[in-house]
Amino acid sequence: MNLQNLNTDGYTDKVVASQEAENVWNQFTELIKLNISDLKYNTWFRPIKPVSLNGSTLHISVPSKDYYEMIIARFGEMVIKAVKSVLGENGKLSYEIISDMVDNNPETNETYNDDTEPSHYSSNDNCGTRYVLNQEYTFDNFVKGKNNEFAYAAAISISNRPGAQYNPLLIYGGVGLGKTHLMQAIGNYIKNCSQKSSIMYISGPEFTTSFVQSIRYNRVHEFEKFYKSLDVLILDDVQFFEGKVSTQDSFFQIFNSLYQLKKQIVLSCDKPPHELVGLEERLITRFQWGLSVDIQPPDLETRIAILYKKCETEGITLPYEVAEYIAINIKDNIRSLEGCLKSLIFDSEMTKEPINLDMAKRSVLKFGGIRNKRANIDISTIISVVANFFNLDESLLRLKSKQQEIVHARHTAMYLCKELTGSSLQTIGAHFGGRNHATVIHACKCIEEAISSNSTFKNKIEEIKEILLTK
Ligand code: ADP
Ligand code: MG
């Protein structure tokens, strides 16, 4: 791979997307754009990045496996045709799946595994897509909710007066809750307000890799000098420094220098700083010198607002019941919420039907909303919901009554326990008056037969599931 170029300082910059790859990609996307709507293009092709060109194979990175599968399923033929017309009969695309284009690379060791000579440090923005700010992450499209109000306020505040207060700003919280978005928004805001600022966004793994490479090429001094010259350093996912002693040492020097010069440092972490294990105490202390703010999972209203915000950007109308359904079922991760919405938009484009609840149910299933929910349903809840549904007393389901109506309800409850909980057949049996696993198997068989032969009953089962899954 030839991923290098020289800048005027004589240091080598890693250019993540080679120029050739970029050119081929542009020709390719021109062809794709002729064949599909802007919306589809923006949803499915815009997030893809060209990486390199190797003979007649163009290497690209896609944000997730779902993308890859959907693109192949829906546009496979068109994609192949377009590639061949740009690169000739042998033209091929090779996909890398990068789960988060901005902060991927979950390297946990101080090692590197490619042979390019890659130190990306340079004082311009010429250093490859991964290291520059992603302009799509702004304050305007960040929804403020109870879960992130302090983080949001702190981010706005330091953006207006970088380096003057709250230094460093540390944002912590779980995966997919908006840390990267907020940090990038800070960078974009400062960049737009003062063109001269040199701002660097980099993730913990990337910093580590880059540092290790600077050792390899004997350029630690230049590496640190570059970081010490920044006006704003945004370092995402510092938990990746855990256990990496020399990376921590180097960062310690950089931190001290920037701090003394009153240059803004923004950090993020997936847990509160005091829970970082394998990070030197002197760093943890410094991380807490400024302000630490957390981001929590969003509540229902915020999740709905985020869905609407994304729709506004895409120019999509989302019926309220659909937004609510998605937001009820996908709770813990905004990335999944977004993925679900994208798949929904895609479905609607493909079927040329307006977005509706049935489509939403399919998308939610695909994005694991129901699966996540399954873990929370317990046997007692199922017994109570089923008893209620059939207008029976709960205790009757647990007793050994042979009355037809009760047996039927009991079988239904056992079947749902098997479908929706991770409990063993034995445990399920135990909840129904100490029955054994063979009885549960028999119950499940009866219900499966009834479902396949009787569509009214099948609908009833769906109805009960719905009650349970949206409870
Ligand atoms: P993290 O870095 O915490 O893992 P990200 O910042 O990558 O999470 O967020 C995941 C996705 O969710 C991104 O596409 C981001 O735009 C979106 N997102 C997160 N929080 C919000 C929010 N409050 N408003 C709008 N979008 C959000
Ligand atoms: Mg992140």
Please describe the structure with a list of short key phrases separated by commas or semicolons.
GMP Synthetase, Chain A, domain 3, 471 residues, Helicase, Ruva Protein, domain 3, 4 domains, binds adenosine-5'-diphosphate, alpha/beta, five-stranded parallel sheet, binds magnesium ion, three-stranded mixed sheet
Topology summary:
Blueprint: E1 4-6, E2 12-14, H1 19-35, H2 38-45, E3 49-54, E4 57-62, H3 65-87, E5 92-97, H4 149-160, E6 169-173, H5 179-193, E7 199-203, H6 204-216, H7 220-228, E8 232-236, H8 245-260, E9 264-269, H9 281-287, E10 291-295, H10 300-314, H11 320-329, H12 334-351, H13 357-366, H14 369-374, H15 379-389, H16 394-398, H17 404-420, H18 425-431, H19 437-453, H20 455-469
Parallel strand pairs: 4-5, 6-9, 6-10, 7-8, 8-9
Antiparallel strand pairs: 1-2, 3-4
Helix pairs in contact: 1-3, 4-5, 6-7, 7-8, 10-11, 10-12, 11-13, 12-13, 15-17, 17-19, 18-19, 19-20
Magnesium ion binds at residues 103, 179-180, 236.
In words, what does this structure look like?
The protein has 4 domains: 3-113, DnaA, N-terminal domain (GMP Synthetase, Chain A, domain 3, 2-Layer Sandwich); 149-294, P-loop containing nucleotide triphosphate hydrolases (Rossmann fold); 300-372, Helicase, Ruva Protein, domain 3; 376-469, DnaA protein, C-terminal DNA-binding domain (Chromosomal Replication Initiator Protein Dnaa, Chain: A), CATH 1.10.1750. It has 20 helices and 10 strands. The protein has helices spanning 19-35, 38-45, 65-87, 149-160, 179-193, 204-216, 220-228, 245-260, 281-287, 300-314, 320-329, 334-351, 357-366, 369-374, 379-389, 394-398, 404-420, 425-431, 437-453, 455-469; strands spanning 4-6, 12-14, 49-54, 57-62, 92-97, 169-173, 199-203, 232-236, 264-269, 291-295. The strands form 3 sheets. It has a 5-stranded parallel sheet, sandwiched between helices. A 3-stranded mixed sheet has the order 3-4-5. Strands 1-2 form a two-stranded antiparallel sheet. α4 (149-160) packs parallel to α5 (179-193). Residues 141-143, 148, 175-181, 306, 309, 334-335, 338 line the site of adenosine-5'-diphosphate.
